[in-house]
Amino acid sequence: MNNQKPKYHQIIEAAVKVIAENGYHGSQVSKIAKEANVADGTIYLYFKNKEHILVSLFEEKMGEFIERIAKAIEGSDSASDQLYTLIEMHFRQLSSDYYLAIVTQLELRQSNISLRLQINQVLKPYLKVIDGIIQKGIDQHQFKEDLNMPLVRQMIFGTLDEIVTNWVMKEQKYTLVDMVPEIHRMLVSALASK
Amino acid sequence: MNNQKPKYHQIIEAAVKVIAENGYHGSQVSKIAKEANVADGTIYLYFKNKEHILVSLFEEKMGEFIERIAKAIEGSDSASDQLYTLIEMHFRQLSSDYYLAIVTQLELRQSNISLRLQINQVLKPYLKVIDGIIQKGIDQHQFKEDLNMPLVRQMIFGTLDEIVTNWVMKEQKYTLVDMVPEIHRMLVSALASK
Amino acid sequence: MNNQKPKYHQIIEAAVKVIAENGYHGSQVSKIAKEANVADGTIYLYFKNKEHILVSLFEEKMGEFIERIAKAIEGSDSASDQLYTLIEMHFRQLSSDYYLAIVTQLELRQSNISLRLQINQVLKPYLKVIDGIIQKGIDQHQFKEDLNMPLVRQMIFGTLDEIVTNWVMKEQKYTLVDMVPEIHRMLVSALASK
Amino acid sequence: MNNQKPKYHQIIEAAVKVIAENGYHGSQVSKIAKEANVADGTIYLYFKNKEHILVSLFEEKMGEFIERIAKAIEGSDSASDQLYTLIEMHFRQLSSDYYLAIVTQLELRQSNISLRLQINQVLKPYLKVIDGIIQKGIDQHQFKEDLNMPLVRQMIFGTLDEIVTNWVMKEQKYTLVDMVPEIHRMLVSALASK
DNA sequence: CATGAATGAGAATTCATTCAT
DNA sequence: CATGAATGAATTCTCATTCAT
């Protein structure tokens, strides 16, 4: 435990660990407080309620997640290369933080509709990044020009998400990043202008 | 557990309606019993526990769902045509039963891991159907021969699932079946041998 | 404990005892349930929430209290005699049920405003009875004809209530009913037409 | 505890305002501290605990209240006139400080028994003043000589208290002081020697 | 087979009070 | 003197499941 960290982050890290280890419904506030080495009441100095811990957790972690991807694709000029980078970063980041992968792929999906809607809001910037790549591909004539943007976005996100979820549920018996080239090839083929 | 008896189905239909209208966490056993016009205790003559109602619901509804798709694709010899039929049937069936779409795409996903694992078991035959189409495509040289089968399956299922979920969350503001040709085209392109 | 009694009354009697012995703030629902020999959850089959137990308690007990007084004064034709009966019955009933006296005079007054307003509603019929006596006294020319009815009612009720509260707080070191003649004499003098 | 310091009074005035506006149970220490423009911890430099704030509030306010009444009745030689002055001052003071009236008539009564007993102690000097008037009335042969002093005192105090409480609860829709002559007339009649 | 009254375990949140600075 | 971040004890209510009728 890093006591220099402001308690806000201490609590969020504790929440990730506790939820990954005990499941969404096994994660009482008191358990998170204990893991974070704070009193139960201290949680409520930083978060309005339990749901707010989870939204904040997702915001913090996905915020970084998305930012790193957005940063990384800035380097390439080609939509296809950008897509490759996005897939690789998506997989690499979740591979390197197994606790986070469990929490985002499995546990947080058990939350109520209200929380899920807030989570969807957090994901919006990621979807915008995907949209940007698609648009660039169209502009560059790498991708078909009459693509249905929402549909394509849902295909890309749905594919990546399903693959990561399967990997988490199979307890990561294989290396996720190894899948990147084939997925990239398939997705580019799906969108290609010819 | 007696599956021939009418009350068994009465309870399952009631569960679909109650969950669709009240959400997963708003669906108490007593509410389902009331909707089914039986006493609370009667539920437990037909189902071991609450979770068992939901698994059975999924088994019944997805069983039919899958069977109809399997039946429908028997008619075609081409893997590409079969994939088209699968996508169309997938969308058509969920479009025509909005309650069921809400329950399977949104509400049942809030259940605990144990129930989700059982749901995955129920989906296995559907994944087998998808695998069969892929294999046939490879055998017919329509699809690339070195496809990674699980990966392809996850792409297809992940794409369809994400698209339906978005449609349900957007309160079906557009016609799902209209999307079939483009999705089919993209998926076939992704898998195509050249 | 009388197990023939429907649980509703069982719980109310338990609440009176528990509150009298432990005070308003020391009376947890679980303590009341234990005293009533029912499970905690059973309370909520009969009462919407904890506050509702207390309102019902007051309704039941005060309902009987008022009814007995109303019945008793029917016997007399004279307003002065009726007032005597009212005072005597008021004191006699609270003297004979010390637990109830503690609860109504001390403990229930610690409740929040919402409950206090509901309690005031329950008392309204009692105030009507007092008003009836005053009116009769005026009609019979026993009492002054230009009395301010609300003011007189408040004087009578305030006097009786303060006297009973003092008696309860002094742990009933004297006999409440002995006070009746003097109080009656003073109140009648206060209202008398000459 | 330093009573000369300005913060002591600052806190008491803040407590009156906060309790009048938020009710007894809505008045957290932190809210009082904020209203008083001091830190939460500062409260505990001046008061042992929360209950002590309330007792002090009552002591300060009722101390002045009683003193003013005692002073005012010094001017009259007749018990009846003194009683008139007492009633008028009682009503006038509470009329002119609506916040204080709410706090003493409604909110502070929701406190626990311990606080109520301390409040009763504070009221003792007021009851002594009433007793003094009664005794003077007896000595002057204005009042009956065999009056039961405690009983009479409870009638007077109970009457005034009930009337003020009703006025506060009715949101002071009428002028309290207008009631003085009739109440005085009734009380004097009740006690009069003939 | 069917009923439905009764059970009782389990958890989020508030807030008076402390104490290191 | 003053601060205010941190503490942690304490309690109502829900709802899946049982079982006597």
Oligomer: homotetramer
Can you tell me the CATH class of the largest domain in chain A? Mainly Alpha
Largest sheet of chain A: none
Helix/strand-derived category of chain A reads: mainly alpha
Mean model confidence by pLDDT of chain A: 92
End-to-end Cα distance of chain A? 54 Å
CATH topology of the largest domain in chain A: Tetracycline Repressor, domain 2
Helical stretch tally of chain A: 9
**What integer value in Å does the Rg of chain A equal?**
18 Å
- Biggest interface: chains and residue counts? A-B, 34 and 35 residues
- The total strand number of chain A stands at 0
Structure, explained:
The structure is a homotetramer of 194-residue chains. In chain A, helix 2 (29-35) crosses helix 3 (40-46) and helix 6 (98-107) packs across helix 8 (149-169). The model of chain A has no long low-confidence stretch (mean pLDDT 92). The longest helix of chain A has 27 residues, at 113-139. The first copy, chain A, has helices at 7-22, 29-35, 40-46, 50-73, 79-96, 98-107, 113-139, 149-169, 180-191. Chain A is built from nine helices and no strands. Chain A is mostly helical. Chain A folds into two domains: 1-47, Homeodomain-like (Arc Repressor Mutant, subunit A), CATH 1.10.10; 50-191, Tetracycline Repressor, domain 2 (Orthogonal Bundle), CATH 1.10.357.10. Chains in contact: A-B, C-D. The interface between A and B is medium-sized, with 34 and 35 residues. Chain A binds a DNA duplex (21 and 21 nucleotides) through residues 7, 28-30, 33, 38-45, 49-50.
